[in-house]
Structure prediction request, 345 residues.
Amino acid sequence: MTATSALPAGTAAPDFSLPSTPDQKVRLSELRGRPVILAFYPADWSPVCGDQMALYNEVRAEFTRFGAQILGISVDGAWCHAAFARDRKLHFPLLADFEPKGEVARRYGVYRAGDGFCERSLFVIDSDGIIRWSYVSPIGVNPGADGILAALEKLSAGKEKR
Amino acid sequence: MSRLAPPVSDSDHRAGPDGARVTLVEYGDYECPHCGRAYPIVREVQGRMARRLRFVFRNFPLSEAHPHAEHAAETAEAAGAQDKFWEMHDALYEHQETLEDPDLVRLAKKLGLDAIRVEQDLAAGTHADRVRQDFRSGVRSGVNGTPTFFINGIRYDGSWDLDTLLDALEEAGEKAVPPARVG
Prediction:
C-alpha cells in the first residue's frame, strides 16, 4: 500500500480535461460558477448495491439542490465507463483518467502507485475552483454522501453571508 | 464516524422495547438482494436477543437500480397506516421476486388489509414523502448502500453474518447505558 496525501481544503483545484465518453471531454474549469464534486474511485464494476457510484446516482437530486455537478473518476477507459454507466443507469459523467494513467489522481494526491488505481476519495470544489473539502476513505469502505452534503451546505451558507 | 440523524423517535417503525439497551437500525430496500439475505439474519438476531433488542427499519429504496423498490416501500408504509407495518415488511422480503403493483395489492389482501386503500395510497403517492424523508435521513447519516446498519446510533461497517452481527450487538449492549424513553 502506498501512502497518499490528498490536496487539502483551500488549495486551487488543478485543472484537467478528461474523456467523459469515447468522443467527448470535460474540462474542470468550464464548470466554474457552480460547485463540483470529484469522486475518485478505484474501478468500475464493484458489487451492485453497495456501489459508491450507484449511491451517488440515487442521491443526485440532493446534489442538484445545491446546484452541484458530480463527476466520477477512475483509471478505467471511456469504453469501460460507457458500459458500466449503461449497465447501472448512471446519469452523471464518469471520467477516464486513463492516459497518462492516473495522471489527474496523482495531481490531486490520491493515486496508489503500487496498486495502479486511485484512492476512494472525494473533493468538493467551490464555484471559484477552490477545493473546500477533501476526504480519503479506507479503500474498502464506501464513504457515502453525508460528507459531501455537509460540505455543500457549508458552501451555500457561506455564500449567503457574503 | 457516521452517526444516525435524526435519532430513533416515535415516528419510526420499532420492534422491541424502547428501553432496550441495544437499538439496531436498518436502512433497507425491499428489492435489494443483499437486504433479502439480511432479512432472516435480522429475524434470528431478534429471536435470540428477544427483549434486549429494539429493531428499527427505515426505507432506502435505490429506485434507479430497483424499479419496484419505491412502491414496495410505500406499500409497507401503507400497511403501517393500517397498523400492519411489520407483517407487510416480512411479507415483502419473503416475496422479493414478485413486487409488481398487483402483487403488492395481493399481499395486502392476504394480510387482511383494506387492499383498496393500499391501492389508492400507491396511486396517490400518499406515503411517498415519508419514504423520501427516510431516504434523506439515510443519506445524511452516511448510508452507503443497502443494507446499512446502525448500532446504537453509530454506522456499523462490519460483516452482518449472524455471529459477527450478534457479537457486535452484544458488545454494544455491554457498553451502553439504557436509552431515555422515547417521548
